[in-house]
Amino acid sequence: MKPPLTTGTVVRDAGHRRPLAGLRFRSTFPSRLPRAGGSVQPSLRAEHYGTVRAIVLKGSGGPEVMSLSEVPDPEPGHGEVLIEVDAAGLNRADLLQRQGHYPPPPGASPLLGLECSGVIAALGDGVREWAVGDRVCALLSGGGYAERVVVPATQVLPVPDALDLGAAAGLPEVAATVWSNLVMTARLRADQLVLVHGGGSGIGTHAIQVAKALGARVAVTAGSADKLARCAELGADVLINYKEDDFVAVVRAQRSSAGGIGADVILDNMGAAYLGRNVDALAEHGRLVVIGMQGGVSAELNLGVLLRKWGTVHANNVRARPATGVGSKAEIVGEVRRQLWPLVADGTVAPVIAAELPIEEAAEAHRLLDSGEVFGKVVLRVREL
Ligand SMILES: NC(=O)c1ccc[n+]([C@@H]2O[C@H](COP(=O)([O-])OP(=O)(O)OC[C@H]3O[C@@H](n4cnc5c(N)ncnc54)[C@H](OP(=O)(O)O)[C@@H]3O)[C@@H](O)[C@H]2O)c1
């Protein structure tokens, strides 16, 4: 097993690091503010609320439809906190939303951005567990590409001291998605074999580390030798170039935890294109969890194959989950904080940051993620540190 990364280690791709010169941030918030005591401080509201800069969509289409504009400053409601955003993580879902294929769920901010990091600037009524000035990151339903965002307090996570806020912006969405699917849904355990499709993606780079920390064996697919080599550095045991190798044959050459063949768990980003082959690659009692539909939404499945293996197919989405209750974002973030966050705090699981670009270059950041050239996450710097 790979040695744990040192505390607060951030795996970065220096080749894509962009200078932050020219990034302007107009906020006058101090970095630390006194505790607000459970409600929004009137002085803060009067002094600072007005407008904030955010990336808005002028329509649906390519990266050029994004522009940096002024939008109304959000105010935290009951049970919410206001975050002064340092950085926002990019996700493939942002590209789909920009193209008009992934509308925000009802009630969510229309702005892009499913995760952010920053400092708590104000507390809504009823919030007791956070204080103004806390360094945090948060799972959002939208609105992260902005200088300030409001979010239910139950979707906020503390940023360990050793981790910089920019890197922390790339954690909440992958942490919630990977933990809820690999652990809460698929019940991945030590010695089981998990196949992670797209090992070099934001999701994949996190899933490899989480699975290794659980003691599982990890097979990954990726589209290049370079990405596979980097997956191996993160701990992946079985490397499959999906452009050259038949992943079903490679995975079926592996032993499952029960001594059979195939993968105990598959984390899938391709949907329809891989459905039949994923089921072929499952071991007895295997669990396929579909989280992406990059290969389409509609496919035929031979249920006989699934039935003979006592297999299960799940399809899950984090963004559309309710804020509270059974199966909610609050439940997932609570489990992430309780079980995964100690591994983040001690550096066993670290953000893998491919590139950081200033918010002014959001269009370029989208092009970069879409290019497939990045390994790990792309992050937008909203505020210069
Ligand atoms: N359901 C949810 O709640 C949820 C939440 C977050 C993300 N997701 C999904 O998870 C997936 C990853 O998200 P992300 O933001 O981390 O995306 P990303 O960084 O943009 O990565 C996309 C990945 O797809 C891989 N890929 C492309 N064609 C492939 C193929 N034929 N076989 C295997 N892999 C292939 C790419 O691999 P190469 O670059 O090596 O070609 C790349 O690693 C996306 O499908 C996204 O929609 C779902």
From TrEMBL:
NADP is among the record's keywords: yes
Key words, A-Z: NADP, Oxidoreductase
Domain of life: Bacteria
NCBIfam families assigned: quinone_pig3
Protein name (database record): NAD(P)H-quinone oxidoreductase
InterPro entries reported for this sequence: ADH-like_C, ADH-like_N, ER, GroES-like_sf, NAD(P)-bd_dom_sf, Quinone_OxRdtase_PIG3
Keyword Signal: no
Organism listed in the record: Nocardia gamkensis
